[in-house]
Amino acid sequence: MERRTIFGGWALPAAFVLPQLLLTVFFFLWPAGEAIYGSLTRQDAFGLKTQFIGFENFVDLFEDPLYVESLWRTVYFCAAVSLLSMSVALLLAVFADREIAGRGFYRTMLIWPYAIAPAVAAVLWILLLHPQIGMVAHGLKAIGVVWDYKINGGQAMLVVILASAWKQVSYNFIFFLAGLQSIPRSVIEAARMDGARGWRRFRTIIFPLLAPTTFFLLVVNLVYSAFDTFGTIQALTQGGPGKSTETLVVKVYRDGVVNLDLGGSSAQSVVLMVGIVVLTVVQFRFLGKRDKT
Amino acid sequence: MNGRTDWTAHIVLSIGVLLFVLPLWLVFSASTQDPAMIGRGELSFIPGSGIGVYWKVLTEGAPGVAPVWHLLMVSFGMAISIAIGKIVISVLSAYAIAFFRFPFRLVCFWTIFFTLMLPVEVRIIPTYSVMAGFGLINSFTGLTLPLIASATATLLFRQTFLAVPDELVEAARMDGAGPLRFLRDILLPVSGANIAALFVILFVYGWNQYLWPLLVATDSRLDTIVIGIVKMIGADTSVEWNRVMATAVLAMLPPVAVVLLMQTWFVKGLTEGDK
Predict the structure, then answer these.
(1) Hey, CA dihedral for A75, A78, A84, A90, is it positive or negative?
(2) pLDDT at residue A211, rounded to an integer
(3) Which of A106, A159, A175, B163 is most buried, with most CB under 10 Å away?
């Protein structure tokens, strides 16, 4: 879409667009360029000579079993977080969309958790699941479960999935509720007349109409669980025990910042960039489609 | 609707609400209890009498962490600067792109658009080295400036501006309004609701940052409250859980208050602007 009416001159708009452009160039494009350059070169041990080596860093990366493991772990983690968080949110949104007493109250109480920081969400879950102080942890021990996510990798994964999904429910809830509210009441009434009830009405009529919202949320949730959960994981497990909760972002941080392996971490950054470019393109292709309808 | 109460809905929603409120209550409750008791696993739902811990964390902090009032100040400064900075910069660039034709306009637009695909998390190391080159490590500017460029806000404002009818622009021009007056007297008031919604989203975004402050500010005077909490837990052996929980409560209050106070605008802005 373009405007027909515009203002003349170019000095003023150039001045207006400049601050944004400068920030973009210095803090986005330049670093991204450096990451790509770094991923294609290798420095000697003293940082004196830089040699162009093509895709060797990437070959090394994907031949490193630890990296591939971390990649699959991230896929698993993202799928679990997105699925769990979106299903709970959808269930709550469907009921919050009904015309019941106190629905304003319910909505507010389900929306506020949007404001909680991922790292702070971790603190809440520590109180529930920490092997020494956690309330639920004590319950689990009482019924004979050996619970210690500081030692047991599978349990650690479960804890970071729960905490990450929990934090994202309210975001998904807001969008599902908006999606449900945009479905014309007449459509739902018509379905009711045809005798479609409860679960069938949801499955055959409402859920398909929510498909654009669901798809949009799926992309957002994948990005969230891949990137924004760094704080949650860092506060709960630091990627441990061992590497059992080390997602790709945690690995970049560990390799680059903690262990100072710059070449390898540049290549990892580039892989992450490619991942997010793919997700963004998918999302915008779909958004473009929705604009036309 | 028929007059019957929809019990299923009430039960499901109540469980949903409890899922969020109970952990929060537990955090508050824990903050007032004796840390030694919590450490032994005798955590209770009933608050203790140690409400004084709030004063203690605010003024003293915890071992190795600055007083919480200081952490709060840094977080406030960061969240407000990011929110206002992003809004100002995005309004200006969206205005330029939507209402003018200047050379390289589309190049500018796509350059800004591209930043959507480069969150801090994917460019950790290179951004750090660029920041170091500018001498911005361990400075408040370094903490906020790189997070101020925003493609989402620019795209949102551009959409809003494109929806302003041409007749309105024509009328303003007939009345002799130049581009600056048009922006101030017409465009900004029309976009008020969008700006409010975006403020909430960006304030929460700024407040909740973790990875970037962790990287760029190693000086503990620049610790935000989110960083402070994770540091407190990291002490591991002798964690004073009541202090951690009091800090967590204080860390949640400001962003939750902003969301609750501006809920209507925020929900509208979020769902209409898409992210």
Answers:
(1) negative
(2) 87
(3) A159
Pick among B8, B13, B17 to test the A interface (most A CBs inside 10 A): B13
Report residues of chain A scoring pLDDT below 70: 1-5, 44-48, 195-196, 287-293
Which residues in chain A are closer than 8 Å to B244, comparing Cβ atoms? Answer: 123
- Chain A residue nearest residue B247, CA to CA: A120
CA distance B199 to B191: 12
Which domains does chain A carry?
55-292 (1.10.3720.10)
Find residues 44-63 of chain B whose CB sits inside 8 Å of chain A: none
Residue of B nearest to A141 (CA): B41
CATH for B52-273, among 1.10.3720.10, 3.40.50.10840, 3.40.50.150, 3.40.50.1460? Answer: 1.10.3720.10
pLDDT in tens, A10-23: 888 888 888 888 88
Read off the pLDDT of residues B111-138 as tens digits, 9 standing for 90 and up.
888 777 777 777 777 788 888 888 888 8
Question: Cβ neighbours of residue A232 under 8 Å, at least 6 residues apart?
Answer: A118, A119, A121, A122, A160, A163, A164, A167
Distance, in Å, from the CA atom of B249 to the CA atom of B208, rounded to the nearest integer, reads 14
Domain with CATH 1.10.3720.10 in chain B: 52-273
Q: List pLDDT tens digits, range A160-175.
A: 999 999 999 999 999 9
Residues of chain B contacting A123 with CB distance shorter than 8 Å: 27, 229, 233, 244-245, 248
What is the reported pLDDT for B62?
77
Torsion (CA) B79, B84, B86, B88 in degrees, nearest 10: -170
Mean per-residue pLDDT, B140-161: 85
Q: Which helix (H) or strand (E) holds A47?
A: none
CB-CB under 8 Å, A7 with B182: yes
- Residue to mutate among A1, A12, A18, A27, with most B CBs inside 10 A, is A27
pLDDT of residue B3 exceeding 70, the answer is no
